[in-house]
Specification:
Elements (H helix, E strand, L loop, with lengths): L1 H21 L9 E6 L2 H18 L3 H9 L4 E8 L15 H6 L5 H20 L3 E2 L3 H10 L6 E10 L14
Antiparallel strand pairs: 1-2, 2-4, 3-4
Length: 175
């Protein structure tokens, strides 16, 4: 039965990536970056970085999330490119795109596009019965290890699980 479940989860993961790619984007520009983490070596690097972030910052949820993800086979990473739409909309909190760039901000439109893709993925995963969680901790660790080929403004990770017990439900800090 485990083989069937793992095969089904692999297929569903591919469908979730398609869902992220085809999610609506602002003005049709694709600022969303998607990576699939499935190799045990890459997962170990991510989890090690998360433990390091806990040590560096004292934020224990990084290590907790790493421990919760140790048994997952697939993690979908979704980030957004550092791109400025030049709308001068102020949605980012700055008065203009130039000010946002000068002060090291990120375009809220690009961040929103990533959020739409993330929401679409987790909803569809839920429909398929796949346990998941949106984790900024995975996204930060991915940024720090250089997982994304492009320079990104931010990222989140979505670990996927198809087991009898949801590993993301009653999470405890185990540091």
């Amino acid at each position: 039965m485990k083989e069937i479940v793992k095969g089904a989860l692999e297929t569903i993961t591919k469908l979730l990536i398609v869902d992220a790619i085809t999610a609506p984007k602002s003005v049709g520009r694709d600022d969303v970056v998607i990576e699939l983490v499935e190799s045990s070596d890459l997962k170990k690097r991510l989890f090690s970085k998360m433990a390091e972030i806990t040590e560096r910052t004292g934020l224990t949820f990084y290590k907790r999330d790493a421990l919760n993800c140790e048994s997952v086979d697939f993690i979908i990473m979704i980030g957004f490119k550092l791109f400025y739409h030049r709308f001068d909309c102020g949605f980012c909190g700055f008065s203009s795109c130039n000010e946002c760039i000068e002060k090291g901000g990120v375009c809220a439109v690009s961040a929103t596009d990533a959020g739409i893709a993330i929401g679409s993925v987790v909803k569809l995963a839920s429909i398929f019965g796949v346990d998941n969680r949106i984790m900024i901790s995975l996204g930060q660790a991915a940024k720090e290890i250089g997982l994304f080929k492009e320079k990104i403004g931010g990222a989140y990770g979505i670990p996927l699980s198809a087991t009898t017990k949801n590993p993301f439900f009653d999470r405890k800090i185990k540091v």
